[in-house]
Amino acid sequence: MTTTTRARRRQYVPPQHGAWAMLLLPYLAGLLVSGFAWPAVPLLGAWIAGYLLSYYLLQAVKTRRPARFRPQIAWYAPVTVILAVPVVAARPALLWFAPAYAVLLAVNVWYAWRRRERALLNDLASVVQSCLMAPVVAVVAGSAPRWQPFLIVLLYFTGTVLFVKTMIRERGSVAYRRASIVYHLAALAVATLIDAFAAVVFAGLLGRAWLLPGRPLTPKQVGFVEIGASVLVLAAAALAD
Fold first, then answer.
1. pTM of the model
2. Cβ atoms of 27 and 133 closer than 8 Å
3. Phi, psi at residue 119, to the nearest 5°?
C-alpha cells in the first residue's frame, strides 16, 4: 500500500478500531440466532456506511467546519440510502426502530456540539445504538426479536465502556474501577438468569474488570483482551435460550 493510498484511507476510515466490534458483534449475534434472509446483506452495508456517515457528520458538528468533511459525507450519505432503501422496502417494520435511533443520535449530536464526545452518557448512547442491531437483524429475518442476545451484548458493551476507561482514559481512578467492578457484578447476576454459559462468560468479564486495571497494558493489548471477550460474548449470545 502506497503512502498516498494510506493517507486517502485514513481520510475516509475513522481511527476507531473498537467501533468495528460494536458494529459487527450485535449484527452477527442477531444473524446466528434469527437466521439469514437476503435483506441482511444490504443491511450490513447500510449499517457500516451509516456508521461512517454519522462519524463524519458528528465531526462536522464538533469542529463547526462542515466543509472539511463534505467529501466523506457526500460519499457515505448516498451509499447509506441506496443500501437502506431495499431493506426497509422489504421489511417496513424496521421503521419502528427509527424513533429510538433518532433519540440516541440526538444525544451524540448534543455531546459533539459540546465537544464532550468522550462523556460516559454519550458512550452509552452509542452502545445502545449498536446493540439494537441484534433485534433489527431478527426483524430482517422475518422473525420476532429475541431479546436475550440484545441484552447480552448490551451488558457486555456497557461494561466494556467502563473497563476500557479504567485501563486508558481513567487509569488510576478508584471511582471508575469501583464502578466497573460493581457493574460487572450486577451484569453477572443478570447473565446468570439468562443462561449458564452466559454466566460463565460474564464471570470471566468480571475477573478482567477486577484484575487488569492497574497493570501496565498498552491500548493494543487491551484491544486483544476485548477481541477474545467479544468472541466469547458472541457465543453466549448465540446460545442464549
1. 0.92
2. yes
3. -65, 145
